[in-house]
Structures are given as C-alpha cells and as structure tokens.
C-alpha cells in the first residue's frame, strides 16, 4: 500500500519532535530522579541499618545492583517507595479466595507450627500473620532509628498514618513497606491472565512472568476501606511491580511510559492526585494487548501509541474506572473524588487535543 508522502513526513516530523522531547525533558527528569534516588537511598539505608541493630528480623534488602536499588520504586519525582523484603514465610499458606479484592492472607499451615515462625507474636488467634501488626512494630522501630541515625537532622517520621513514611530534607517522602516475595507462585485472583485470544504476551514471556511471581505488601488497602472486614488489618496487598516491568521490556514500551510519566508530572499533577504514574503504566500494558505485534512498538509508532493511551485515559477518567491490569476487579480510581477525576479528564483532553492538532506542540509541552 502506498502511503501519501505528506503523511510520511508528518510521521517523521512527529518522531523528530518526540525524540527532541525525550532528550530535553524525559532524560533531564530521569537524571534528576537518579540523583535524588542516590541521596534518598543513603538516608534510608542508614535508618534501616539502625533498625536492624535493634531488631535483626528486619534486615535491610535495599541494595545497590549496578545503580539500581532492589525494591525501590519512583512514585513521583518527590515520592518514593521502598519495599523491605522479610524472610521466612515457610510455615504459612497463601490464601487468595477472592473475598478481599486485591489482597490475600497468610495462614499458619498447621497450628503446631506457630512456635516455628520467626514472626510468632504477629500471628492472630485464628492463625493469620497480621500485616498491620508487623507494620506497627516496624513503625516503632523506624521512629527510634530516625532519632539515632547519622541523618537525624534531615529525616523525620510522617505522623497521622499507619504507613511507615519518612520525610527527608523537607522535600522528599519515602514510604517503607514490609513485604514477602512470592516467587514461582501465581495468585488465583489473577488466574484469568493472560487473556485468551490475545496474542500478547507470548507463552515464553508469560512463563517468565509467572515464575517471577509477585509481592505481598503490608500497607493500607483502599479497596477494603468501608468493608468492615475483620480480616482487613491482617490482609496483605498483592503487588505485581516486577511482573509489569518485565512485560514492558522490548520495543518502545519503556520509552512510551517514560514520556507519559514526564507528561503526567508536567501537566497532570493535579489536586487530589487523580492520575499517577501507576495509572500510566497500567494503560501502557492494556495498549500492549490492543497492539500485540512487535512492529506496532517500533519507534515510528510511538506517537500513535501515546495518542491511543491518552485517549484511553480520558475514557477511564470519564467512566471513573481504571481496572488494575492483573486484577481487573480492582478499580485504581477507588478513593479518588469525582471532581478530581472530572478535572483530570478536562486537563487530559486539552493535552491530547494539543498533541493531535498541533505538529509542534511538544516544543512547549
């Protein structure tokens, strides 16, 4: 099929603009974040070292692997999350029966094994390992560590939350979340994945992702709030960060997400935080299903993919629902106010219209 020359030139102009935007805006954002991450990790490592002295069961897993920190996640340029991997989950069964959306529980496989558990005092009378009890103990330890560590002048605990959050140099907030890594295991609530009849991802990649497994995090679960479930405090939140990162390798997927995160920080960082970088990541994964062929993720298609994802984001904001990629019954907009979602939809539409109608829009975006 012959493509009109003006269409080709429009596409190459857009690609030129996108590459320029990537070089001038995205790379600068990445560079600044990398510097911040190094600075923040020094402080967090020092605090966690102090925690470990007081309580050897909480061993810091925040290690530098060639400039990348294991379990470190960038939420925004000033907000970060550190996942602290706990060890020895052995005497517990992983129970995921769908009664706690987005969560699961860890139950003693045999009552007699209670004394064998490293976490014996955090096990409830019913035999569940309580996420909240572990987090509460960890919070006390971190508060004490902040007073003792060598960075005590620049770090303090954020009050009024059950989460373990640090404010560093009054500019950055880091949440530290105790977690268990579940490798070689796949939750029943995500058993529908991959979606039948969708040729992406290929079977080898699916096998890799399922072997990678998922994490169980001790954090407040928005989906359970208001449910009055007695299990609420004991439940662990399912997290698929590693699996998602693995799926987004190859083609311009990573580049696409980096551009979207930069646009989010510049234009969609709105009151009530309706649009997060995690929403962007989720929509890129759905876009991969809609465009399963590798050639659709060639650099030349980057503009089309970005437009598709932004239009999908507008649709989600207007419907006030954004399903989690692996757990579609989970709404990632839960807890966001209607007005903040409406405001974000308008703002996102302005941004998308500008990109679609103005060939040079990226110069000023």
TrEMBL record:
Q: What Pfam families is this protein classified in?
A: Mab-21 (PF03281), Mab-21_C (PF20266)
Q: Which domain of life is it from?
A: Eukaryota
Q: Which residues form the Mab-21-like nucleotidyltransferase domain?
A: 69-250
Q: Which residues cross the membrane?
A: none
| Residue ranges annotated for the Mab-21-like HhH/H2TH-like domain, each copy included | 252-349
Stated family: Belongs to the mab-21 family.
Protein name listed in UniProt? Protein mab-21
The organism's taxonomic lineage, starting at the top: Eukaryota, Metazoa, Ecdysozoa, Arthropoda, Chelicerata
């Amino acid at each position: 099929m012959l493509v009109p020359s003006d269409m080709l030139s429009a596409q190459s102009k857009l690609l030129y603009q996108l590459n320029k935007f990537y070089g001038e805006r995205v790379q600068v954002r990445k560079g600044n974040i990398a510097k911040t991450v190094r600075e923040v990790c020094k402080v967090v490592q020092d605090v966690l070292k102090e925690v470990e002295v007081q309580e050897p069961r909480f061993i810091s897993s925040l290690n530098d692997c060639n400039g990348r920190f294991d379990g470190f996640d960038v939420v925004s340029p000033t907000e970060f999350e550190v996942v602290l991997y706990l060890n020895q989950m052995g005497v517990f069964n992983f129970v995921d029966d769908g009664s706690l959306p987005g969560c699961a529980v860890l139950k003693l496989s045999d009552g007699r094994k209670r004394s064998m558990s490293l976490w014996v005092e955090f096990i409830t009378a019913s035999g569940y390992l309580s996420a909240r009890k572990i987090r509460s103990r960890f919070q006390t330890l971190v508060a004490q560590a902040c007073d003792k560590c060598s960075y005590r002048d620049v770090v303090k605990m954020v009050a009024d939350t059950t989460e373990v959050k640090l404010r560093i140099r009054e500019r950055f907030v880091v949440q530290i979340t105790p977690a268990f890594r579940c490798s070689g295991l796949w939750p029943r609530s995500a058993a529908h994945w991959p979606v039948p009849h969708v040729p992406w991802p290929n079977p080898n990649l699916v096998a890799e992702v399922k072997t990678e497994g998922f994490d169980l995090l001790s954090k407040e679960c928005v989906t359970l709030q208001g449910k009055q479930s007695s299990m609420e405090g004991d439940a662990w939140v399912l997290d698929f960060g590693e699996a998602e990162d693995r799926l987004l390798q190859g083609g311009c997927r990573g580049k696409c997400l980096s551009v979207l995160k930069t646009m989010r920080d510049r234009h969609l960082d709105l009151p009530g935080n309706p649009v997060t970088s995690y929403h962007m990541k989720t929509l890129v994964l759905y876009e991969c299903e809609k465009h399963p062929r590798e050639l659709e993720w060639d650099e030349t298609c980057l503009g089309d993919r970005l437009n598709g994802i932004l239009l999908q984001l507008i649709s989600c904001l207007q419907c006030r629902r954004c399903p989690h990629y692996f757990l579609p019954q989970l709404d990632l907009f839960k807890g966001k106010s209607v007005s903040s979602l409406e405001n974000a939809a308008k703002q996102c539409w302005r941004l998308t219209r500008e990109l679609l109608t103005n060939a040079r829009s990226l110069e000023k975006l």
